[in-house]
């Protein structure tokens, strides 16, 4: 039942529960630079709860819902009395695709159309944000390769059982999962993630004074291995979602990406906080494609 509890306050990209020493998240790191930061989730909650704040992500969401969720989020920000809508800078994290690749792709009549569908959703969302949310940096973070978790050998039995429900396109008999079908979904997943990188670099989102889009690639070569064994401490009870430790490592990897110039960004994560970047005198800012 704990899987139905949404620990939004501990989310790697928008959780702000406690402080960075107890919960290493991007907002808790940013609060060290700006104590007046607002919008991060306070604690366990669902998207319609006040504690969720500007975290408008929906459980089970797929790419086609991005424009709708973006519009809801803009309304929340616009109507929040703490926000100077025209003057305050906003930073968004867009990460979606796990449900598309795990449970949606195999229901389509033309599964190979999924990357193009995703492209249309991304473009519609980004154009809406560009035109309706001033002073905004959008970071697109691709979901990790699904096979990283569902294809793990010798995983606990409870994980095997839950993966049948969480990722039925890849695991189990519901959609006649086979080695060949998994290879097909993997190819589509590669294209899906490639679309995100391509869209982030489109000319229509470049050279703008108050809007930027950047693809942050820290999930590209994500590994769960610790030596020759899977480090299950990075994963939750279902071996699919991240544990708090996993969220902390994700937050550090994300933070490092923000301070790394395009073309030189890390494409994985390091155990613990062995690498924790800080703004430099030469570049005391978050990198975009235009300022690097």
Provide an overview of this structure:
It is globular, with a radius of gyration of 19 Å. The protein starts with 25 loop residues before the first helix and ends in a 34-residue tail after the last helix. The chain has helices spanning 26-30, 66-78, 98-104, 114-132, 147-150, 157-166, 179-200, 244-258, and strands at residues 90-94, 136-140, 211-215, 225-226, 229-230. The mean pLDDT is 95. It has a single domain (8-259), classed as Rossmann fold, CATH 3.40.50. The protein is built from 8 helices and 5 strands; from the N terminus they run H-H-E-H-H-E-H-H-H-E-E-E-H. The protein has 292 residues and is mainly alpha-helical. The strands form 2 sheets. A 3-stranded parallel sheet has the order 1-2-3, with helices on one face. Helix 2 packs parallel to helix 4 and helix 4 (114-132) runs parallel beside helix 7. InterPro entries: GDSL (IPR001087), Phospholipase_B (IPR035547), PLB1 (IPR038885), SGNH_hydro_sf (IPR036514). This is SGNH hydrolase-type esterase domain-containing protein. It holds the Pfam family Lipase_GDSL. One of its GO terms (molecular function) is phospholipase activity.
* Overall tally of structural domains: 1
Report the total helices: 8
Low-confidence stretches are: none
CATH architecture: 3-Layer(aba) Sandwich
GO biological process, one term: phospholipid metabolic process
Protein name: SGNH hydrolase-type esterase domain-containing protein
Organism: Anopheles atroparvus (European mosquito)
GO molecular function, one term: phospholipase activity
């Amino acid at each position: 039942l704990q899987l139905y509890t949404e620990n939004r306050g501990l989310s790697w990209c928008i959780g702000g529960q406690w402080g960075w020493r107890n919960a290493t998240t991007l907002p808790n790191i940013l609060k060290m630079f700006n104590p007046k930061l607002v919008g991060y989730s306070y604690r366990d909650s669902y998207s319609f709860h006040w504690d969720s704040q500007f975290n408008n992500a929906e459980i089970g969401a797929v790419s086609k819902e991005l424009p709708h969720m973006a519009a809801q989020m803009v309304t929340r920000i616009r109507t929040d009395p703490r926000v100077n809508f025209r003057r305050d800078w906003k930073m968004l994290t867009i990460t979606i695709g796990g449900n598309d690749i795990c449970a949606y792709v195999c229901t389509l009549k033309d599964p190979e159309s999924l990357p193009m569908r995703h492209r249309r959703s991304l473009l519609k969302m980004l154009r809406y944000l560009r035109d309706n949310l001033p002073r905004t940096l959008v970071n697109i973070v691709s979901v990790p390769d699904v096979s990283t978790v569902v294809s793990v050998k010798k995983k606990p039995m409870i994980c095997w059982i839950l993966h049948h429900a969480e990722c039925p396109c890849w695991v189990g008999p519901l959609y006649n999962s086979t080695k060949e079908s998994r290879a097909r979904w993997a190819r589509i997943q590669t294209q899906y993630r490639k679309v995100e990188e391509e869209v982030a670099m489109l000319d229509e989102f470049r050279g703008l004074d108050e809007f930027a889009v950047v693809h942050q690639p820290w999930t590209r070569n994500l590994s769960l291995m610790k030596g020759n064994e899977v480090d299950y401490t990075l994963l939750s009870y279902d071996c699919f979602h991240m544990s708090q430790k996993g969220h902390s490592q994700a937050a550090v990897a994300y933070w490092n990406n923000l301070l790394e110039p395009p073309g030189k960004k890390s494409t994985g994560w390091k155990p613990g906080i062995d690498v924790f970047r800080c703004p430099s005198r030469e570049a005391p800012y978050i990198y975009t494609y235009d300022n690097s």
